[in-house]
């Protein structure tokens, strides 16, 4: 029974996540996501991250489904996406880095965060999130 449970857990994790060599690679990856989301392709943009995730695939798929469900509501409320701005890079020591972007809409903005962790020589995508609580950008940057 233990072997079966281990196999299920093993399959559900992305054990072959791609690591990144440099901050330049991180910037290219996050900008490719933002280029897609700024074309009103949020699901397509987030899916760019799939090979890089270091958490269970089912969590990622749930996130994609939730984003897909919410997109018509966001478009109705915020309007069309009209571009993005890079807000900044924040480092914690030499092992954690966060990139922050604004996704601009006709009527509002979304804030995107991408956090990477460097345990040894390569960077791993630790997490990403986005929201529309613009006050947090001023509190956290």
Summarize the structure.
Helix content is 43%, strand content 28%. The chain is α+β, with helices and mostly antiparallel strands and 141 residues long. It starts with a helix and ends with a helix.
Observed structural traits:
Nuclear Transport Factor 2, Chain: A, four-stranded antiparallel sheet, alpha+beta, 4 strands, 5 helices, 141 residues, single chain
Write the layout of secondary structure elements.
Layout: H1 2-12, H2 23-37, H3 42-47, H4 57-78, E1 81-92, E2 96-105, E3 109-117, E4 124-131, H5 135-140
Antiparallel strand pairs: 1-2, 2-3, 3-4
Verbal overview:
It is a single chain. The protein is of the alpha+beta class. It has a single domain (21-140), classed as Nuclear Transport Factor 2, Chain: A. Helix content is 43%, strand content 28%. The chain has a four-stranded antiparallel beta sheet, with helices on one face. The longest helix is centred in the middle third of the chain and has 22 residues, at 57-78. The N and C termini lie far apart (49 Å). Residues 1-13 have low confidence and may be disordered.
